[in-house]
Specification:
Blueprint (H helix, E strand, L loop, with lengths): L12 H4 L1 H11 L4 H5 L5 E4 L14 E15 L6 E8 L5 E7 L3 H6 L5 E11 L2 E5 L2 E5 L20 E4 L8 H14 L9 H6 L5 H9 L4 H32 L12 H8 L6 H14 L6 E6 L5 H14 L3 E5 L3 H15 L16 E5 L5 H12 L3 E6 L13 E7 L6 H8 L7 E6 L5 H7 L4 E5 L9 E7 L4 H16 L3 E5 L27 H10 L7 E4 L5 H12 L5 E4 L12 E6 L7 H8 L9 E7 L6 H11 L3 H10 L3 H4 L2 H4 L14 H17 L7 H10 L2 H9 L1
Helix pairs in contact: 7-8, 8-24, 8-25, 9-11, 10-11, 15-24
Protein name: Probable DNA 3'-5' helicase RecG
GO molecular function, one term: DNA helicase activity
Keywords: ATP-binding, DNA damage, DNA repair, DNA-binding, Helicase, Hydrolase, Nucleotide-binding
């Protein structure tokens, strides 16, 4: 270990020793002094204030500040030796039992009533009591038992605010705090990357002060100022990245695709069997203007399930075809690609049958390109695409493969953007001579700050009205464990709907036997809960039990593509009464006759996912019903989440709730990139004003210095916080 000055690049082994550095690296991915000082506390405990033990969830890895209330030693029943039980409390009535196995008399002497400490472990439950088995702990000096907090071991906790770090079982929070103290004693902060004018104008403290105060706050006021500065750095880095991308994209050339009077689009509008909503017309005008410019459109089209995004996208595609180009729609699944294909053929009629008898004069061709096409059909489709006769091309990521060539790709429409990687998007875009126009569609409502932070380089259009004729959807929580009769009633309701000539979905979180996949959560639950219900197990039970005699089909992502399409077609044609499926039905599946959906183990789905799922019913004239079946206990966070979904169909309210319950890093690409998120403090929900201010400063700075050439320290800081991989993720959303 060294007492020489350290910088952000100094290896931790020089500062904290080889053994500790190895633990920090292997368990927390912390390698340098910079990594450690940017590993911020998750929260701060205050001596004399309580951690709310009653709010802890079973299965959670926690560190709690608590006081020993009593200890008890009793013999173990199953084996020789004693069990030490220590009851600790937080001062507000919440208690937790600590259990230690084996003969550990020294621990009983150490954990005397009155001692305060930090206790870390995984919350379990035994006979209705919450407990930590064999937790790690760090006792704090406590004047009540006459000991002074003077030892070096607990020096890092001498302040009023005790930092609690994101930790690992092998590296508890107090070890991290000790290492941070060692590093800060010799740490030379980097040059402040933030321009002095921005710092002064926004009243932000310097980077050195912020890094010291966030770890060892001298007061709550100084901690607030430190957190505000470090949040600003995160928001500013993201906004600079997005504003730069938008600035560069505005200078790219693209082929204008202006509207053509009397062309395909006008003919399509004339044959539409219904009127466009005012929202569809307004968004259509925005998109038409974008397509007519010599720079590529980058527009996000968001709208609730059933708001009519597909028709808006089809009208944009027809404008491009009228202008001599081709348009491609990328769908996340073959089921959805095939459904778009059938739907567009129905809407276009003779306008989609160029070269066939009875085709309209201006007709084009619509081609479906998926991985399951036979060799002959694939060759024919690829020829139509390559020679330009297919004006509209629909497909999955199969469109990205070698051998799919376009004559003149003018527009890329990406449906349900969050399901595609950036590399896939770029691969499709690279099939054009010049960057094509891009329209991104999502049915997941996006809170304003997420739109600003994740889609900040896209113009945004929103469809808020539902087309005429759409029916309301009622949602109810079915507490299966507390009231099994409610579940029986749910199955009777399915039979009633089928008897009335309607159809039903039953959604499960898991496919069945075999390894986990994206639509297949892990089978085993760390907290001892049973595995999630599976499609392949539930379907036969329903067929033999409550839905006996009904025509039941099964749909999930592991079925061969032709089988999936056949099942979906059978359901759409009314040849099946009930479809038991995974979330493969979440996006875009459109069967107007389906009126009821039962979601089993609903607590295992996210808020936005549940909202998407229930949008599959009520798509016709009959009202829709969504029943959320759960065994989650009343009052639990999972149950409250489901109650919130049942209480409103306002997707934007639910999107805010979803954001509250997700880590910011998930929103900003940490999970997708498989790396730690560098955005650790910024809350997209709570820091709206700060994000807005950071964007305003970013726009001003990029207009003056587009590539940040005059601000090299800032450019390096942005690159560290938002590396190129994450910058691309931000573009993708």
């Amino acid at each position: 270990m060294t007492s020489e000055p350290s910088t952000v690049d100094t290896p931790l082994k020089k500062l904290v020793g080889e053994k500790t550095a190895k633990a920090l690296a292997s368990h927390l991915d912390l390698h340098t002094a910079g990594d450690l000082v940017y590993h911020f506390p998750r929260r701060y405990d205050e001596r004399g204030e309580h951690t709310d033990i009653r709010s802890l969830d079973v299965g959670e890895q926690v560190t709690v500040l608590a006081q020993v209330q009593r200890t008890a030693v009793r013999p173990m029943r199953q084996r020789r030796g004693n069990l030490l039980e220590v009851t600790v409390g937080d001062g507000s009535g919440g208690v937790l039992t600590l259990t230690f196995f084996g003969n550990q008399a020294w621990r009983e002497r150490e954990l005397r009533p009155g001692r305060w400490g930090l206790f870390a472990g995984k919350v379990t439950e035994f006979r209705g009591k919450r407990q930590l088995n064999g937790p790690e702990y760090q006792l704090l000096g406590d004047s009540t038992d006459g000991e002074a907090a003077a030892s070096e071991e607990i020096e890092e906790f001498a302040g009023a605010l005790i930092p609690v770090y994101p930790a690992a079982a092998a590296v508890p929070t107090w070890v991290i705090a000790r290492c941070v103290r060692v590093v800060l004693d010799t740490f030379t902060p980097p040059e402040d990357p933030l321009p002095a004018t921005v710092r002064a104008g926004r009243n932000l403290v310097g980077i050195g002060t912020a890094l010291r105060e966030i770890h060892r706050p001298s007061s709550k006021e100084e901690l607030y100022r430190a957190r505000r500065r470090l949040k600003w750095d995160e928001a500013f880095a993201v906004q600079l990245t997005l504003v730069q991308r938008k600035h560069r994209a505005a200078s790219w050339p693209a082929r204008p695709r202006p509207p053509k009077p009397g062309g395909l689009l006008d003919a399509f509008d004339a044959r539409l069997p219904y009127e466009l909503t005012p929202g569809q017309r307004d968004v259509g005008v925005e998109i038409a203007a974008d397509l007519a410019t010599p720079h590529p459109m980058h527009r996000l089209l968001q709208g609730e399930v059933g708001s009519g995004k597909t028709v808006v996208a089809l009208r944009a595609m027809l404008q491009v075809v009228d202008a001599g180009g081709q348009a491609a729609l990328l769908a996340p699944t073959e089921v959805l690609a095939a459904q778009h294909y059938r739907g567009m053929l129905d809407l276009l009629g003779p306008l989609a049958t160029a070269g066939e008898l009875g085709a309209a004069d201006d007709a084009t061709r619509v081609e479906l390109v998926t991985g399951s096409l036979g060799a002959a059909a694939r060759r024919r489709a690829l020829t139509e695409v390559a020679e330009g006769r297919a004006g509209i091309v629909l497909g999955t990521h199969a469109l990205l493969y070698e051998g799919v060539d376009f004559a003149d790709l003018g527009l890329v429409v990406v449906d349900e953007q969050h399901r595609f990687g950036v590399e896939q998007r770029d691969a499709l875009r690279s099939k054009a001579d010049q960057p094509p126009h891009v329209l991104v569609m999502t049915a997941t409502p996006i809170p304003r700050t997420v739109a600003m932070t994740v889609y900040g380089d896209l113009e945004t259009s929103t469809l808020s009205q539902l087309p005429q004729g759409r029916s309301p959807i009622a949602s109810h929580v079915v507490p299966a464990a507390e009231k099994p009769a409610f579940l029986d009633r749910a199955w009777r309701r399915v039979r009633e709907e089928v008897a009335a000539g309607h159809q039903a979905y039953v959604v499960c979180p898991r496919i069945g036997e075999g390894p986990a996949s994206e639509e297949e959560p892990p089978r085993e639950d760390d907290n001892g809960r049973r595995p999630p219900l599976a499609v392949t197990e539930v379907a036969p039970l329903l067929a033999e039990g409550p839905l006996h005699g009904l025509r039941i089909g099964v749909l999930h992502g592991k079925l061969p593509a032709d089988e999936k399409d056949a099942v979906m077609r059978s359901f759409a044609d009314g040849q099946l009464d009930v479809l038991v499926a995974t979330t493969v039905v979440e996006v875009g599946v459109d069967v107007p006759n389906a009126t009821v959906m039962i979601v089993l183990d609903a607590d295992r789905f996210g808020v936005s996912q549940l909202h998407q799922l229930r949008g599959r019913v009520g798509r016709g004239t009959a009202p829709g019903l969504c029943l959320l079946v759960t065994e989650a206990a009343e009052g639990s966070s999972a149950r409250e989440r489901l109650d919130a979904v049942a209480s409103t169909t306002d997707g934007f309210k639910l999107a805010e709730l979803d954001l509250e319950q997700r880590r910011e890093g998930d929103v900003l690409g940490a999970t997708q990139s498989g790396r730690r998120s560098h955005l650790r403090l910024l809350s997209l929900l709570r820091d709206t004003d700060l994000i807005r201010d950071a964007r305003a400063e970013a726009i001003t700075l990029v207009e003056e210095d587009p590539e940040l050439d005059r601000h090299p320290a800032l450019a390096a800081s942005v690159a560290a916080l938002v590396d190129e991989e994450r910058a691309e993720y931000l573009e993708k959303g």
